[in-house]
Every structure is written in C-alpha cells, then in structure tokens.
Design brief:
The structure holds two protein chains of two kinds. Chain A is an alpha/beta fold. Chain A has six helices and 14 strands. In chain A, the strands form three sheets. A seven-stranded parallel beta sheet of chain A has the order 7-11-6-1-4-5-12, sandwiched between helices. Chain A has a three-stranded antiparallel beta sheet with strand order 8-9-10, with no helix packed on it. A two-stranded antiparallel sheet of chain A has the order 2-3. In chain A, helix 2 packs across helix 5 and helix 3 crosses helix 4. The longest helix of chain B is centred in the N-terminal third of the chain and has 17 residues. The chains are: A alpha/beta, B alpha/beta. The interface between A and B is large, with 86 and 101 residues. Chain B: One of its GO terms (biological process) is fatty acid beta-oxidation using acyl-CoA dehydrogenase.
C-alpha cells in the first residue's frame, strides 16, 4: 500500500504578519516557516496506518520554494519514507497548486492521499477537493478520526453537533481535521535518520491561473474600545452598553 | 441569462442559516451586476421547502429532489451543481463557507478546472465584475481576489452577510440531473446526534470562550452557564484545548475555528496572536481579564478588568434577567 501525504510550509502561527513591498504577499523577512499543523496531523495518520499494517510506503509531497525541504525532512523524521519537492517560488492559486500536485501524485499511483483540511496561511480549504477531482477518486473532507482496514477507510467528522461516519474503498483523498490524534515529537535519532532519506526535486507543471490577488492589507485596528470598569460592579454597566449601545443582547 | 447561482445547505429538511445569507447576498450582487440570482436546493424530499427562499428576495429556485440523495455524501451534490450551472450558463456560483460548503465548492469548481475563492467576507461589484475580500492567516491580513474566468466559484463566510427579508413569490423549477455510480463510492454510514443540539461555533450568534485563566476544567461550568444565559455557545482557547480541559471542536483560533459572531465574550484569555486571529472579525468583543495589560483588551470593544471567578457569576445573574 502506498500513501501520499501533501504538506505545505507556512509561517509559524505565532508570526505577526507584515505586508510585503508588492502589497500582494507577506513580507517574509524574519518569518519562521513550519509544516502546516493540519498537514502534520495528516502525516501522523499516515504513520499510524504504516505502524499497524505491513508493506506501507509513505511519500511526502510538497510544492514550494527549495527551503520546503525542511518540512519534508520533518515529515520524513515522523516516519514518511521519501519525499518529493515540487519546486515553485511563486505563490499560486489553489487550482494551479492542486494541478501540479496531481501530476506528481499520478506518477506514484497511490492507494490513499492525505492532506490537511486547510493550510494555515491562505486558509483556502480547496486543494484536497480539487486534487481528488483531478485524480478522479472520492474525497472525504475534514476527517477528525481516520481508520484503515481491508482496503477501506472510515472517517469521522463532527458538524454542528452531529458526528458523521463516512466509509470509502481505496483509492481516495482524505483531508484531516484536528481530532484525538496528536502529531508525534521527533527525536534526535529520527531527525538524523531523516537526513539520509531520499527527497526528489521536480519542476512544477505550469497551468493558467484561475484567480489573482489584487491586494493584501492588514485589518483596520480597533478604535473606540474601552474598559467599562473593574470587578463585578462593572457588570450592570456592561450589560446596559451591550443592550443599548452595541445592541447585541 | 447568465446569472448567479446560490447553493443552499439543507439539514433534516430545513435550511441551515448560512443558506439564507448566501441567497440574500446573491440577490444583492445580481442587482449590482444587472443580472439574476437563482437559488439551488438539492436533496431528498426538499421540494416542499424550496418556495420558502422567496422570503429572501430570490425569484427563481431550482430544485433537485431525488431519493438517491437521502443521506448522500458530497460528490453527487457537485455533479448536480455542475449540470445546473451549465444549463443556466451561470457566471458565478455562491456557496456557504461551512465545512461542507468549502469541500463542495472545491470539488465542484475542479470539475470546471477552477478553484473557488474560499470563505469571503466582502463582495465588490465593479464594472460588471466581482472581486472578493477574504481573511488570510486566520484574519491577520485581508486579501482582495479577482476570479479570472467564468463561471467563478465563491464561498461566503457564515454570519457575515445579512439575510435580508424581501418577500417575493419564487418560481420553483424542478430539474432532473444524472448521477454517476462513482459519486456514491464514499458513503455516510452513521450519523450520531449529540445529546444537546447546539449550533456550530462558526454559525453561532453569541460565543463565550474561556482561557487558561479559568484554572482548570472544573471551572468551565461558569463559561457554559454564561453561554446558556446569553443564548450562545461556548468556545475555548488553544492553551485550554491543548491541556485537555476542553474538546478540540471548541477551539477558536488559527489552528481551530475562525468565528464571526455578533458577540464574543473572552474570559480569562490573554489574547495570543493565534487566538486573536480566529475571533477578531466578531462584531462586538467583550474581554474579562484580571491583567489590564492583556493583549485581548486591544481588540475588545468593552472590557472589565477583574477576576473571572467574581465577574462571571455576576454576569450569569445579569444574563438570566434578560429573558424575563
């Protein structure tokens, strides 16, 4: 069985975002890049399937600049067997990204493709669904729990107070949400081993952009916020303001 | 006439609230673009409720009502929308940016070799073209995006767009579509209801969240009680979820849910950048924190500096008075 996991490098979530000189992308100066947390969970799910089954190979695939090698090594240290880096320095839309990923993944002919429910930079939640459609396989979205048995995956996702169980025979694409599974912490030994694993660099396939970013800006700072008072004595005044001024109660 | 399709989301034969927002926004955009909006209702046994959408000003409703869609998963919905968008020669297809809506918009758009502009919070109609504004980095920045080809696919963040009532007699058109066998390969095999029906955080009008300053899971009854006194739902910060005090589905923030309620009450949450990112688009923010310098006060409209264990009981009392 072969599992492909798609991973993306994103600014660490503690990053303070600054707009770059082009007013379309962020200023990456001083930004620390990490594996997108949902993608890291997807790697964890893949590694657990490998641990519980014989003959599983995990291929981590990333599209991004050459330094995405770092997050591929992170996935390799977690337990992926090899990596593919689709080199691309320009930011591109979800369709172009999915198209490049699909072309690389088709060559691998995997049984299962995992990715995070979204990348925590552009927050698009698009790539998994597009990828499944391009690979012509079913898409299970936002799985908080995932299990594999007898060539079939079972996923659970929670929506508005209901838990849905979805089943699908392989091949399919599953996007991963937070659930009970936590990503393992890499040991020094596993990090050292990962340096020796194979990462193939390939060129991105080009396709026409379907959308363009016109502008990136910071949200307007909040004005007019105020401290109503101190301690429980301020509560009556707060409720009065919420009712009469803000009109939200 | 090429117009805008507004895709609705139906659960147990009633519309999810975000559906009305999408229909209403499609009607407004269609007016600005000089075209027409058509609402789309897809499911099993949904024909009866289709007409209700006229309440939100839409004149045309397309219904796909097929027994095969009883508890069906997402792919057949995408196949149905593809056929409707082609038949109507639509320029734009709007979805609610719920979890399902985002997944559905992705697989539908991909069938047209497109991606959807996801989770938009503003629409602008200039010169007959639509541009969209959407939060990125969980709201730390805003991006303006223009789709380059048509049809273009767009999902709209719940709770942001007004569901404006404008009673209209809607014409309901039933459409037959075909489904591939492949569309039913992924199956919903079980749906478990939670004991208590609460709206999802992303759709809630009022959210009360607790942070690490709540000191332990045993004190979250204060958060739950205030939420229920105000008619809202409870959320949590990442620190609290990571500590195992609260379930992950309550987490608000960049690696949790991004929310835009009418009222967000942050209790004993210092306001890490990760958390602020997930809730700063809330209409009104209230912060309760004993540290007057906590970053949460920089995004709050109203703040009380004080101990949550003294302030929250007083707020619960005051909240209970609201009903009477």
């Amino acid at each position: 069985m072969k599992i492909v996991v798609c991973v993306k490098q994103v600014p660490d979530t503690a990053t303070k975002i600054k707009v770059g000189a082009d007013a379309k992308t962020i200023d990456s100066d001083g930004v620390e890049y990490v594996i997108s947390p949902y993608d890291e969970l997807a790697v964890e799910h893949a590694v657990r399937i490998k641990e519980n089954n014989d003959d599983v190979e995990i291929v981590a695939v990333s599209m991004g600049s050459a330094d995405s090698d770092k997050i591929l090594r992170h996935a390799l240290a977690m337990g992926a067997d090899r990596g593919i880096l689709i080199e691309n320095d320009n930011s591109c839309d979800s369709f172009v990204t999915a198209q490049s990923l699909a072309n690389a993944i088709k060559e691998e002919n995997p049984d299962l493709v995992l990715c995070g429910v979204k990348a925590v930079d552009d927050d698009c939640s698009q790539v998994g669904g597009i990828l499944a459609t391009l690979l012509e396989v079913p898409f299970i979205w936002s799985a908080a729990e995932l299990s594999y048995e007898d060539n079939k995956v079972t996923a659970q996702n929670e929506l508005a107070g209901e838990t849905y169980t979805v089943e699908c025979e392989l091949p399919c694409v599953v996007s991963i949400q937070k659930g009970s599974v936590e990503a393992r912490i890499n040991s020094l030994i596993s990090i050292r081993k990962a340096r020796k694993k194979e990462v193939n660099n390939v060129a991105a396939t080009t396709s026409e952009a379907v959308m363009q970013t016109e502008k990136l800006e910071l949200p307007a700072a909040k004005v007019g916020g105020r401290i109503v008072g101190e301690g429980p004595e301020a509560v009556a005044e707060l409720f009065k303001l919420l009712r009469e001024e803000a009109k939200v109660l | 006439m090429p117009g805008i399709l507004a895709i609705t989301e139906v659960k147990e034969n009633s519309f999810r609230k975000a559906s009305f927002e999408v229909v209403s926004e499609a009607v407004r955009c269609a007016q600005n673009l000089g075209t027409e909006a058509t609402a789309v209702v897809i499911g099993s046994g949904v024909e009866a409720i289709a007409k209700d959408l006229g309440k939100y000003g839409v004149k045309n409703v397309v219904v796909v009502d097929d027994a095969k869609l009883e508890n069906a998963y997402t792919p057949p919905l995408a196949e149905a929308i593809e056929q409707i968008a082609k038949a109507k020669e639509s320029d734009y297809v709007f979805f609610p940016a719920t979890l399902q809506g985002k997944a559905l918009s992705a697989i539908t758009a991909a069938r047209f070799q497109r991606a959807a502009v996801s989770d938009c919070t503003e629409t602008h109609c200039d010169g007959g073209e639509l541009t969209l504004k959407r939060p990125v980095y969980a709201g730390k920045a805003l991006e303006t995006v223009k789709p380059l080809q048509k049809p273009a696919f767009v999902s709209l963040r719940p709770n942001v767009f007004a569901a404006e009532e404008a009673a209209t007699e809607a014409q309901v058109e039933k459409m037959d579509v075909s489904f591939s066998d492949k569309a039913f390969l992924a199956k919903i095999t079980d749906i478990k209801k939670a004991e208590e029906q609460k709206p999802d955080l992303t759709e809630a009008a009022i959210i009360v969240s607790g942070g690490r300053g709540m000191k332990g899971p045993e004190n979250f009854n204060l958060i739950e009680d205030l939420a229920s006194a105000l008619g809202g739902v409870n959320g949590a910060s990442r620190a609290v979820v990571d500590a195992g005090w609260r379930p992950h589905n309550e987490q608000v923030g960049q690696t949790g849910k991004t929310v835009s309620p009418q009222l967000y009450v942050a209790c004993a949450i210092s306001g890490a950048i990760q958390h602020l990112a997930g809730m700063r688009t809330s209409k009104v923010i209230v912060a309760i924190n004993k540290d007057a310098d906590a970053p949460i006060f920089q995004v709050a409209d109203y703040g009380i500096v004080g101990d949550v264990f003294e302030v929250l009981p007083a707020m619960i009392e005051e909240g209970k008075k609201l009903d009477s």
